[in-house]
Predict the 3D structure of the following.
Amino acid sequence: MVAWNMLTLVGGDRPGIVASVTRAIYVAGCSLGEASMIRLGGSFTIMMMVSGDCPSAELEQALTPVAKDLGLRLHIDPVEGGLHRHLVPNVQVRVAGADRAGIVAEVTGALAQTGFNILELESDVAGTADRPVYIMNIQGYSDETVEALQASVAGLADRGIEVDVSPVETLIG
Amino acid sequence: MAALEILTVPDERLRRESVPVTDFDEELLAFIDDLEETRLAGPAAVGIAAPQVGRFQRILILDLSGKKGVSNHGHLVLINPEISHWEGFEIGREGCLSVPDFTGNVIRATRIRLVARATRGESLELEMEGFEARALQHEIDHLDGLLFIDRVVSRRTDLFRRKVYREPRKGAS
């Protein structure tokens, strides 16, 4: 038995997707772990941990009719890992620049050279259709100093990409 | 002195509103010693509030002195604290002794003024900014039965943060 199944569902956005999907999982007797669900460009995307004590064939059987009804593509992967394994980010990287190919690859490439571990990345295209602006917010963990990380991305400013590296200090109270 | 048991979610007692302290006596001082010992026994907390240990009185401890480069007043015991003015706001990451294994982003005022009493009932007036102001707001929330998980926002809120903020209305609370 695997510890968890990673469930991926993608399809055109409409109200009620989360309710229908999670209801089907619940009725099938499976339980949920961590999840990320977000609307991206008119599609709704779900990535969700479902407990491995629920066999993936059973899970697939429970979800197939719902996915079909809602026009969602369904994918199930057995995964290792588990709950309570959070890494707390200590660095935030904000990026903004006129949208062009390669921004993400260049910024994250420079960070990867330093051993930076991306824990979460959110990006969006703002501005207008004529003048799109790429905005990205990365939360991650690094053993390097903020100054060293700033130096690693400093060259990108010449190419019109503003990169702001700042520490994330988590308050415990 | 003794470290006290910390209430954790979903304990309903964390939702109780605490009442002001009226007796500034030896018993209060002994409790504050225990509260401080409890704070120090846990994971690197910069603050703790009395209701977190099941005493529903408006008492909190802050100590940002261990944070490098953070403007702060050192070790503070604040009794019956009230924020009288605040301005600006920003998103920052928070965790809590009462919410194990979870951190999230919360919007807090960046500069505040407050009045409070010290351990013998002396009047205090303080101005705080940044991380210390955040810590104070986090602890005062405990006195009102609120937790940071009631205020968690998406990082997308930050991604699209507005450049111009309206000043809070005068006398708003």
User: Anything to note?
Assistant: Chain B touches chain A at residues 42-49, 67, 70, 92-97, 101-103, 131, 134-135, 138-139, 148, 155-156, 158-160 (CB under 8 Å). Helices of chain B lie at 26-41, 130-143, 155-159. The beta strands of chain B are 47-49, 59-63, 75-96, 99-117, 123-129, 152-153. The mean pLDDT of chain B is 91.
